[in-house]
Amino acid sequence: MSTFRFDRSALTAPRASIAGTALVALLVSGLLTGGSQAAPAAAVGEPAPARATTAAPRPATAPRPATAPAVSRPAVGPEARLAALVPTLDREVLRLGLAAHSGAVARGLAARPELLTVIDYSRPSTEKRLWVFDLAADRLLFHELVAHGKNTGDNLATRFSNVEGSKQSSLGTFTTAETYHGSNGYSLRLVGLERGVNHLAMQRAIVIHGAPYVSAAFAASQGRLGRSWGCPAVSQAVSRPLIDAIAGGSVVFSYYPDQGWLASSDLLRQGGTALAVAR
Predict the structure, then answer these.
(1) How far apart are the C-alpha atoms of 239 and 250, rounded to whole Å?
(2) Smallest Cα–Cα separation from 191: which of 210, 178, 209?
(3) Is the separation of the CB atoms in 153 and 159 below 8 Å?
(4) Cβ(252)–Cβ(117) under 8 Å?
(5) pLDDT digits (tens, 9 = 90+) for 59-95
(6) What's the start-to-end Cα distance of the chain, in Å?
(7) What is the predicted pLDDT for the residue at 259?
(8) CA dihedral of 128, 158, 227, 264, whole degrees rounded to 10
(9) Which string of DSSP letters, residue by residue, matches the chain?
(10) For residue 210, which of 134, 146, 161, 137 has the smallest C-alpha distance?
């Protein structure tokens, strides 16, 4: 009778092959289902491996530019603002015109301080040399031809007077007065503010009026404008609206580089000081 032997290896040997078979099955299953990233389960009794945690990268931020310190810019004065409107007007003439205006206002002589008329008699009569400014609104209202007196010069003005009957233009600062109808039609009286320079303007009947000899066509045919008896005559086409715009106490400044007048004018000196303080 044969004896049966119990072989313990028969019970333990298949475990390794079973575990290997299970592992292969898991790998094959992962490949067939798209390659899952899941880690295999830990063996029973074996602690689960700790997952490595990676912090999400922070988005890069551009360095902030340094903040420049605030710079206070000086306010642009009336001279610069008006010069920007009319760059062809000589800057020195404009400066003197504003000084004359400031002087008249400081003395209480300008009932309409918002307006300034500048005439530059250093330019030929064939050029537009009269400007009317609205100082309150920084606007140019008129830019026109203007005649000078018969005895002041031909196309260029060279001589000026305050003498009645001279038929010459007067320099300096004026204010406008009332309108009237005279031998030259609708006209505007001027009051001279500078003694010895133009203070006889009313007595001489120096007024703004329209005239047929003030036009581009006349200048082209004659080489100059026609001449008045000392009045700053303008074209008939613009005389009424211009006169209505500046009548009633606005400042009119008539310029020529007469060094004696420029050096001795108290009005310009006072106005220049006031203008410098206002800046």
Answers:
(1) 16
(2) 178
(3) yes
(4) yes
(5) 555 555 444 444 444 456 889 999 999 999 999 999 9
(6) 137
(7) 95
(8) 80
(9) -PPP---THHHHHHHHHHHHHHHHHHHHHHHHTT---PPPPPPTTSPPPPPP--PPPPPP-PPPPPPPPP-PPPPPPHHHHHHHH-TTS-HHHHHHHHHHHHHHHHTT--S-TTEEEEEETTS-TTS--EEEEETTTTEEEEEE----BTTTBSSSB-----STT------EEEEEEEEEEETTEEEEEEEE-STTTTTTHHHHT-EEEEETT-SHHHHHHHSS---BSS---EEHHHHHHHHHHHTTT-EEEEE---HHHHHH-HHHHHHHHHHHHH-
(10) 146
Place of tokens 């062809």: 88
Please list the residues that pair with 173 across neighbouring strands.
253
**Which whole-number Å values give the CA distances from 151 to 169, 182, 199, 258, in the listed order?**
8, 22, 19, 17
Distance of CA 204 to the CA centre of its chain: 42
CB 174 within 8 A of CB 252: yes
Give the span between the Cα atoms of 191 and 169, in whole angstroms: 14
> Which residues are 176's β-sheet partners?
190
Strands 251-255 and 115-120 turn out to be: parallel
Which strands form 234-235's sheet, in the order they lie side by side?
139-144, 130-134, 115-120, 251-255, 172-182, 185-192, 207-211, 234-235
Token pair for 144:
């026109």
More confident residue, 212 or 56: 212
- The whole model's pTM is what? 0.73
